[in-house]
Specification:
Layout (H helix, E strand, L loop, with lengths): L1 E5 L9 E7 L6 E2 L4 E6 L4 E5 L4 E6 L6 E3 L3 E6 L5 H59 L3 H21 L3 H7 L8 H10 L17 H19 L18 H16 L2 E9 L1 H17 L5 H15 L5 E4 L4 E4 L5 E3 L1 E3 L2 E3 L2 E2 L7 H16 L13 E5 L18 E5 L3 E7 L2 E15 L5 H16 L1 H6 L2
Parallel strand pairs: 12-16, 16-17
Antiparallel strand pairs: 1-8, 2-4, 2-7, 3-6, 4-5, 6-8, 9-19, 10-11, 12-15, 13-14, 17-19, 18-19
Helix pairs in contact: 4-5, 7-9, 8-9, 8-10
Length: about 475
């Protein structure tokens, strides 16, 4: 019987993708789990397998098509002995429906509980406001009408006079404090940023405005302005031009790096490490790694060294939650490795690095880097990283400042090792020196901590046993 094979959920939060390759043809006999098309989203490039075996009757899409979850890929002629599978599916459906009903009831109970809490808060707020209004009325009744009129006249004339002189911003701000719910410090902060506080939407109780609200308003206003004023000139006036669409990966990289740069206050720290001893270690053990299916490189050693450093300096293995003003410390160590591919930068993640040997790490890096370049990485293989290493040494350069990969708080950049004269035991000797660049989030990590972390890595590279023993 004929059955439609549809686009499944490609990854969490991904609803559409572009078809990059059709991997089967009409009339082909295909196996269950055989890849039938390759698609590229803003997360990764993946191959979609067929959930069933059969004969391809017709293909319903073409390369370059924009597809979304649920679109038909192809029509598949399958055998009719699927009754058992259908029964299993019906049972699964019943179980899912039961589970869904339970979840809906739990959600309803939770919402009712939340509504009850909100009603209590509203009641408390109302009582506070009534008390405040009562107090203000009492004070107003105790004042004489003539004095009140004189005071208002005096305020008006003083306000007008100060406005004419250009000196009234702070006085007006104080007099309007009941109209805009914000503390004096928040008002002052808004003035320093050039923000009209009356235009800021408060997120606190009864719309109270915080410094974060002012920052968000300033950032949003800036972004809106840049969109309105960032029109490009007509480059064709000066010569021939060509427009090409950004790939899904390049487009995602552009958005993510721009967001990270505007959100995270970056600080950069530089150092050098004498890796002459490490290179000898690599030379002695490269055959062992090759037999295991990997390639032993300085990156593999760095991953192990950094894993130990993250144990020594747990802040670098954390994330920051500004909304709740909390630091999230992680007991697991997953390190991402930046891989340059034809379609853009991908960052596969090596999990539980501290529990693996350098050879095991070398094998995993080799496998993941190969999958990245072949566009076969799954979204799951790029999730859960706590720290990233970007090694451009194979290409060149002396130093660079990598952008932190949100929600991480630090990234290590590695450039090309150079031979330099190093003072050793009273004499200068030619040694291989590796340039290191550390970018870190200044909201969580101070300069002294950044220096200590990078210095520890540098010293551990010069004495690899220090890292292996955790000394």
């Amino acid at each position: 019987m004929a059955e439609e094979i549809k686009i499944p959920q490609i990854a969490e939060g991904v609803e559409s993708a572009t078809v990059t390759e059709i991997l089967v043809s009409e009339g082909d006999e295909i196996e269950k789990d055989q890849s039938i098309i390759s698609v590229e989203s803003d997360k990764a490039s993946v191959e979609i397998p067929s959930p069933k075996a059969g004969t391809v009757k017709s293909i319903e899409l073409s390369e370059g098509d924009e597809v979304k979850v649920g679109d038909v890929i192809l029509s598949l002629e399958t055998s009719e002995d699927d009754s058992k599978e259908k029964e299993d599916k019906d049972e699964d459906k019943e179980e899912k429906e039961k589970k869904k009903k339970i979840e809906e009831q739990e959600k309803k109970d939770s919402e009712e509980k939340e509504d009850s809490k909100n009603q209590e808060k509203e009641k408390e707020s109302k009582e506070k406001k009534e008390k405040k209004d009562k107090k203000e009325r009492s004070e107003e009744e105790g004042e004489k009408d003539s004095e009140e009129d004189d005071k208002e006249d005096g305020k008006s004339s003083a306000k007008e006079e100060k406005t004419e002189k250009g000196e009234s911003s702070e006085a007006q701000d104080d007099e309007d404090r009941e109209e805009v719910p914000a503390a004096p410090g928040v008002r002052r902060f808004a003035r320093e940023l050039g923000v009209d506080i009356s235009q800021v939407k408060g997120s606190g109780e009864q719309g109270r405005i915080s410094k974060e609200d002012v920052k968000d308003h300033a950032r949003t206003s800036k972004n809106k302005g840049s969109v309105e004023t960032s029109g490009l000139p007509d480059f064709s006036k000066w010569g021939q031009t060509e427009r090409k669409s950004l790939s899904g990966i390049r487009s995602a990289t552009a958005r993510n790096t721009a967001a990270a740069w505007s959100e995270i206050p970056h600080v950069f720290q530089f150092d050098e490490a004498d890796i002459s001893g490490i290179l000898e270690y690599i030379e002695e053990n490269k055959e062992k790694a090759e037999k295991a299916g990997g390639q032993l490189t300085i990156t593999a050693v760095l991953v192990k060294v950094v894993a130990t450093a993250l144990h020594q300096f747990p802040k670098f293995n954390a994330s920051i939650d500004m909304e709740n003003e909390e630091m999230i410390l992680k007991s697991f160590i997953n390190i991402g490795i930046a891989v340059d591919t034809e379609k853009g930068l991908l960052i596969p993640v090596i999990r539980n690095v501290d529990q693996k040997t350098i050879v095991e790490i070398a094998v995993e890096i080799t496998q993941l880097a190969g999958k990245a370049r072949d566009q076969k990485l799954t979204p799951q293989e790029m999730k859960g990283g706590n720290f990233t290493i970007s090694n451009l040494g194979g290409i060149g350069g002396t130093n660079f400042t990598p952008i932190i990969y949100h929600p991480q708080v630090a990234i290590l950049g590695v450039s090309r090792a150079q031979e330099k004269p190093v003072f050793v035991n009273g004499n200068f000797e030619p040694r291989k020196v590796l340039p290191l660049s550390l970018s870190y989030d200044h909201r969580l990590i101070d300069g002294a901590e950044g220096v200590k972390f990078l210095t520890w890595i540098s010293k551990a590279l010069e004495d690899p046993y220090k890292a292996l023993l955790g000394a």
